[in-house]
């Protein structure tokens, strides 16, 4: 077991290189480092400010702008200006159903389990590619400000992010040319920024309350031996300071007797901006009072608090639920940490303090606290803090082969050992009774480029339709570096297990070479993975569309049938050509064209069912 640092520019082992901490946020992102005086600092690239709005704009030529420059286009070119991409990372269309209206750009809605894609111009982007654009900008700013190449980073994610969202964040980092040493939970980073958890003998339970512009979450963490464990999380991904602004806007519309239905978008925008200004002012003063044209913008702190009371109570209810899920009482919490711009509102602070019965930590700027903590975590990984015990880590990722020869990582590189992780899989063919499980080690997206450790068959799965069996695959890596791979089909209890020693025959040189290869090939690897995934989706769609017209051609006119076939042929041609963007475009066109037919079929089924019933 070892931890290896490499310089991407020279390919040599390096100990002293700066590792940055990145807070990749829904609204804003920022990058921090540890300065020569050992203090964490947010990087301020001259004149550009600390916060980089997490916004990407594409012009007609497909060139990108990121941050404040991209924000300008939110109003003038909303269709090609992508914001809140973090909400889409690692998510499928099903996951975001009902929230499409939040996004002003085009989401490709295939109505299934595949990952969300975004269309800008005639190109299709995954949230991974868009997040990579933001990370590239942060990397460039850090390099400019620090005057040195920045190739390694720690990136934070919300504690509630699942495996797929974490993997997507890791991929985005790689695509941006960053070696992502660790994905760290945001509440863990915020605690580290306050020095909580840095003493290995410390045992504490803490609550991290994070209220941003559009999201709220609370996490309960247990710290023991320098390890942070998430006991529970709760929150609402559509609640935040923007709701406070909206409440103020409605109040002013009322007070000024404006007709809400007849407001033009310019005035609406002005009301919103003034509302945010008033809200911020009321964090330090008791009254906001301005007049512009015929409109009075007046608000006192007490009224503001009444306006936001229900929303704040909602966050406290989440805290209650999080405590309940962690099986803890409020008195078990030793520390409370505040994160997110909206915790600057004194009423929020007071309510949180009253709920937990203690003063929360709020000394550090709540917009920066997560990035600062990520920088501290980076410094720990760099081995610069001798007072902190560095745990053994696994030097290369461990995973299994999935569809199209892709590597599915189950234990990521740099994970502390001992560790345990698992994921659920299913069959792809009807009546499949065996499942081949191939275990690999390495960082490349295609298993053929990685090191094969073992292969075994899970036999005796009862015959079921494709997708029905539930096969849990668990990786258990013990402190001696022995990996146990367990596969169990949950419906039947069929089970198989093997032991492997992943480090057997693995020299430091091999590890180093595998890491360098993974980085030099990162871009082509991710592109290949995306193509394989697009192909999988395209092929599935051809299959479903063909089955559909085979069974239901009677509901289509001959022209519709002909055109469906033309779309299918076009998608087939794209599949054999192998261009990801064209495959996704043709798949989208086929989907769009056939969607009304599926609806027609449903309507017919409903009216048929109604006919048989007597309605009094
Ligand atoms: P974040 O998503 O963490 O960057 O938080 C942004 C939210 O914090 C926005 O809703 C801002 O309006 C809000 N915010 C920023 N500064 C203040 C302040 N001084 N008082 C109250 N809310 C603020």
Short characterization:
This protein is α+β, with helices and mostly antiparallel strands and 616 residues long.
List the SSEs and their pairings.
Elements: E1 19-23, E2 28-34, E3 40-42, E4 52-53, E5 55-58, E6 64-66, H1 68-71, H2 73-76, E7 81-83, H3 93-96, E8 106-107, E9 118-120, E10 123-125, H4 127-146, E11 152-157, H5 163-175, E12 179-185, H6 186-193, E13 204-211, E14 216-224, E15 227-236, H7 241-255, H8 265-281, E16 287-292, E17 295-300, H9 301-325, E18 335-339, H10 346-356, H11 369-381, E19 398-402, E20 406-411, E21 419-425, E22 435-441, E23 451-458, E24 471-477, E25 483-489, E26 495-500, H12 508-520, H13 522-552, H14 558-577, H15 580-611
Helix pairs in contact: 4-5, 6-11, 7-8, 7-9, 9-10, 13-14, 13-15, 14-15
Bound molecules: adenosine monophosphate (AMP).
Adenosine monophosphate (AMP) is lined by residues 27-28, 212-213, 240-242, 276, 279-280, 283, 340-342, 344-345, 367.
């Amino acid at each position: 077991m070892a931890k290896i640092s490499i310089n991407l520019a020279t390919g040599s082992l390096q100990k002293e290189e700066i590792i940055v901490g990145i807070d990749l946020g829904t609204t804003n992102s920022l990058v921090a480092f540890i300065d020569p005086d050992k203090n964490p600092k947010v990087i301020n690239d001259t004149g550009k400010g600390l916060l980089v709005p997490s916004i990407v704009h594409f012009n007609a030529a497909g060139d990108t702008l990121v941050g404040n420059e991209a924000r300008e286009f939110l109003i003038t070119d909303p269709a090609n200006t992508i914001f809140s991409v973090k909400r889409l990372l690692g998510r499928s269309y099903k996951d975001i159903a009902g929230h499409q209206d939040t996004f002003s750009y085009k989401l490709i809605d295939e109505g299934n389990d595949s990952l969300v894609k975004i269309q800008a111009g005639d190109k299709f982007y995954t949230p991974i590619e868009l997040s990579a654009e933001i990370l590239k900008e942060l990397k460039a700013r850090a390099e400019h400000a620090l005057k040195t190449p920045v190739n390694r980073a720690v990136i934070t994610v919300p504690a509630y992010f699942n495996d797929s969202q974490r993997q997507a964040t890791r991929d985005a980092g790689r695509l941006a040319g960053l070696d992502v040493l660790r994905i760290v939970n945001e509440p863990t980073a915020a605690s580290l920024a306050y020095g909580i958890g840095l003493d290995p003998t410390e045992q504490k339970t803490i609550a991290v309350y994070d209220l941003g512009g559009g999201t709220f979450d609370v996490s309960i963490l247990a710290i023991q031996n320098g390890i942070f464990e998430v006991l529970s999380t709760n929150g609402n991904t559509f609640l935040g300071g923007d709701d406070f602004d909206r409440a103020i806007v409605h109040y002013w519309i009322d007070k000024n007797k404006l007709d809400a239905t007849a407001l033009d978008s310019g005035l609406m925008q002005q009301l919103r901006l003034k509302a945010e200004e008033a809200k911020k002012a009321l964090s330090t003063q008791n009254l906001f009072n301005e007049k512009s044209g015929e409109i009075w913008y007046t608000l006192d702190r007490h009224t503001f608090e009444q306006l936001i009371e229900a929303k704040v109570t909602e966050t406290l209810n989440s805290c209650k639920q999080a405590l309940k899920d962690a099986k803890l009482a409020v008195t078990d919490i030793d520390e409370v940490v505040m994160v997110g711009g909206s915790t600057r509102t004194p009423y929020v602070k007071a309510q949180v303090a009253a709920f937990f019965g203690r003063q929360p930590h709020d000394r550090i700027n709540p917009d920066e606290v997560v990035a600062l903590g990520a920088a501290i975590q980076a410094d720990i990984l760099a081995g610069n803090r001798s007072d902190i015990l560095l745990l053994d880590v696994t030097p290369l990722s461990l995973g299994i082969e999935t569809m199209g020869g892709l590597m599915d990582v189950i234990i990521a590189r740099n994970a502390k050992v001992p560790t345990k992780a698992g994921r659920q899989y299913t069959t792809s063919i009807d009546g499949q009774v065996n499942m081949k499980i191939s275990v690999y080690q390495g960082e490349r997206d295609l298993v053929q480029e990685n090191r094969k450790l073992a292969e075994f068959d899970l036999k005796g799965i009862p015959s079921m339709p494709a997708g029905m069996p539930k096969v849990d695959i668990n990786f258990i890596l013990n402190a001696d570096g022995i990996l146990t791979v367990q596969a169990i089909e949950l419906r039947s209890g069929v089970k198989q297990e093997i032991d492997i020693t992943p480090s057997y025959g693995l020299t430091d040189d091999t590890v180093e070479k595998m890491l360098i290869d993974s980085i030099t090939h990162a871009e082509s690897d991710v592109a290949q993975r995306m193509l394989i995934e697009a192909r999988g989706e395209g092929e599935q769609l051809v299959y479903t569309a063909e089955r559909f017209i085979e069974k239901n051609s009677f509901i289509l006119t001959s022209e519709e049938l002909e055109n469906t076939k033309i779309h299918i042929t076009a998608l087939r041609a794209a599949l054999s050509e192998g261009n990801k963007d064209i495959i996704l475009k043709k798949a989208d066109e086929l989907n769009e064209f056939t969607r009304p037919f599926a609806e027609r079929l449903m309507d017919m089924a409903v009216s048929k069912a109604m006919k048989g019933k007597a309605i009094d």
